[in-house]
Design a protein that fits this description.
single chain; alpha+beta; tt1808, chain A; 6-stranded mixed beta sheet; globular
Length: 206
């Protein structure tokens, strides 16, 4: 169940910190977005990608992280209490240690991967793309688990994402902002999932 939030109010990071941990929201331009519970396939992709990154980046200054970790994205270098955009990317890499604290990340990560949720696809594909572009995230990947397709966005010299690169989830994809680092999609052994149980019948108790 979500929180009793006011749709006409803009919230900040201070408000966000006061919300209970068992309800996961992202905050974008002051508006709370309720996050969908992750599926098994979603978590599988996150784990496999993060494992490959951890191996390849071992001993390097770049740090791979996975959700839930708060990423604060200030617009004008404002103090934390005035920040109104806080997200939890599925997988991210931060190479600047000055951006890392125990509370999370302040500023744009160097690389972000989001696994698209079918129930909230527009949030990942449209809203967060705009946010990451504005914040200056150099490279933003979107994994579409149902279609097994990858969309890659990279910032160009004008500070905007250029034409997206599309590929199926096979072979390898180099992370341009992390030279020598790549994701090998053929290493992913997709889980065999049993069908979900049918929904429980409604109770007739009064």
């Amino acid at each position: 169940m979500g929180l009793p939030l006011e749709s006409t109010r803009n919230y900040t990071y201070v408000d966000y910190l006061g919300w209970p941990d068992d309800v996961r929201y992202e905050l974008i331009d002051g508006q709370p977005i309720l996050m969908s519970p992750p599926t098994v396939t979603h978590q599988f992709i996150v784990l496999q990608v993060a494992t490959q990154l951890a191996t390849q980046l071992k001993g390097q200054p770049c740090v791979p992280l996975v959700a839930p970790v708060d990423v604060r994205l200030p617009k004008f270098n404002e103090a934390d209490e005035f920040i109104d955009s806080v997200v939890q990317p599925d997988v991210l890499v931060v190479c600047d240690p000055a951006k890392l604290t125990e509370r999370g990340v302040r500023g744009a990560p160097d690389w972000v991967l989001e696994v698209v949720s079918p129930s909230n696809a527009a949030h990942d594909i449209v809203t967060k793309r705009r946010l990451y572009e504005r914040a200056g995230v150099p490279e933003f990947w979107l994994v579409h688990p149902v279609d097994r397709v990858l969309t890659v966005h990279r910032l160009e010299a004008d500070g905007l994402y250029g034409r997206s690169h599309l590929q199926t989830l096979d072979g390898q994809t180099d992370i341009a902002v992390l030279p020598g680092t790549r994701i090998d999609w053929d290493e992913l052994q997709w889980p065999s999932l049993a069908p979900d149980f049918p929904p429980l019948p409604e109770s007739n108790a009064s």
